[in-house]
Amino acid sequence: MAQMRIVKGVAVAPGLALGPVHVVNATPHVVPTWSVAEEDLPREIARLREAVALASEELHRRQKVVAAEVGERDAAIFSVHRTILQDPSTLKEVEKMVREQRINAEAAVQSLIERFHKSLSSIEGDSVRGFASDFSDPWRGVLDALMRHERQVIEQTEGKVVLAAAELTPQVVTFLERDRVLAVITETGGRFSHGAVLARSFGFPCVVGLPNLLSRLEQGMRVAVDGEAGTVQLRPEQVDIDRFLVRLERRRARVKKLSVHAGLVPETPDGHRLSLTVNIESLRDLDTFNPAHTDGVGLLRTEFLYMERSQFPSEEEQYRLYRRVLERMEGRPVTLRTLDIGNDKQLPYFKTPKENNPALGWRGLRISVEWQDLLRVQLRAALRASAHGVMRILLPMVTSIEEVREVHRVFDEVKKQLIDQGYEIPHDVPVGIMVEVPSAVFVLPHMIHEVDFVSVGTNDLVQYLLAVDRDNPWVSKLYDVHHPAVLMALAQVARVAQEAGRPSSVCGEMAGDYATALMLMGMGYDAVSVVPSLLPEVKYAVRETTHTEACQIAAQALAETTSEGVRRVLTQARERLHLRQLQSRDVDEVLGSNDVNGDSKKRETG
Ligand code: PEP
Ligand code: MG
């Protein structure tokens, strides 16, 4: 009874993984749903009852606190809530859902809460709606207890797991320590979303867009994830596992072979030197590459240092972190990007109002300019650390010259204050901007004279140029890094920077595709910045391609009027490189199909 158990999704990060799945609820408002095996139903019911008891205890505790602090009258609501929880008929109803639908306790409780709301929302009046909350609130407490329990259980076990979730968010990717995660698989999520960027930089295989994934999984079920083909095999049989292990071994061998190039200089055969830097987000990343194999850190996304905490990191904490990065890079430049939160990069302790269009809302530099205390603390820490290496400051989401001037004003003030306080600050810490909003592309000819360098954030630039949300799976097909408008913007930025004599780089994910990196070099970019795992591949491609050829790739790509045409040019560049490789050495394939920009399918079939 061979059953097709391969689910096809969208490949986000390469790699293969085999192991037990853990369904995560790290996304606020999303309750995990999974099916429960017949024999596990009694355990699930026990989990539910335990959670009800815990929620009831918690209510009792709150009742006592409020009674002591405020008064018995205000505490009475908690006793009402406990009575609601103790109603045996409601508990029976939830248990019935678990048994009959074979779903986890969280899903059943969530369904009950939704029912309370549906049945009462049709009735007019605030007091009635308040009544609905009174009924559902105690059950929300049960949900909290269940989810806390889920986290405790996974923290207590030791094995590695494949994380599965409804949506690919940074919270899901960082749910467990990196060395406990084999892969990440989700029902929805864009290939250029922040969660995807993070998964790639962590080096996890990652597949998204897996339809009805959670309803097909059971906690602990074994799965095989193929981050290259974008598939997940459920409950693989021994023969599949054996085949998978052979592929895993081959992949390891390829990675090893490529690493031979890691230490070489990224210089073309005709003597053009590209600067190749890395994108990192945490101190952990520092252990994933050899600093001597890079030209520095092209992008240090500092928001992830904030996201892993329960409150804003102090100046001292930030100073120590930045200093460690600088010291580890041993004199190579570190480009520290100021806090770029907002949209889906939320801090658990910094509640912002709900926005209808968060990508167009309160994020990035806008928050720093408005909440200058945050910016000042970060700049103080960064400037103090800059005495221990070579620091560059990068501003995200710049849209106007006024913003740049405002930050410069704060920067100068902070610097002066530090010097007055006796700190030794290098006087030449460069300040550059991310070009990731179309307005910055257009005003760049003026703005360039007020900044020291530019770095193009194509992940955002593409979403804003094409009006396609990078985090919305419904439009992920339209998120097209090869759109001619994207290339025109890229070429314009490189030209303006070159004319003004300012260094330029691209730090968006598209630069991690080696053919694209060659095109960017041909356009005139001085540097590309990629996740450490892609460094050897890009380096190899640069060393095998003349600068003249790279300029031709850029010119041909820019002459195309459709994305299809641009992709064709890049595919041809890849094929030439493969051919050269085969002619010049008797090696197996060295350059893999690691293509973050989405033409791998074409190459497989072409
Ligand atoms: C970008 O937008 O391309 C970028 C590098 O920044 P982030 O992905 O962190 O938004
Ligand atoms: Mg960005």
Structural account:
By secondary structure, the protein is α/β, with parallel strands linked by helices. It has 22 helices and 16 strands. The protein has helices at 41-69, 72-85, 88-101, 105-121, 126-156, 170-173, 194-202, 213-216, 238-258, 303-307, 315-328, 365-370, 372-385, 401-420, 438-447, 458-466, 484-500, 514-523, 535-544, 547-559, 563-584, 600-605; strands at residues 6-8, 10-13, 16-23, 161-167, 181-188, 206-208, 222-226, 231-234, 275-280, 297-301, 334-337, 391-395, 431-435, 454-456, 504-506, 527-530. Strands 1-8-7-3-4-5-6-2 form an 8-stranded mixed beta sheet. An 8-stranded parallel β-barrel has the order 9-10-11-12-13-14-15-16, surrounded by 6 helices. α18 (514-523) crosses α21 (563-584). The protein is globular. The two termini are 35 Å apart. The model is unreliable at 126-130 and 592-606 (pLDDT under 50). The protein binds phosphoenolpyruvate (PEP) and magnesium ion (MG). The site of phosphoenolpyruvate has 11 residues, from β10 and α16.
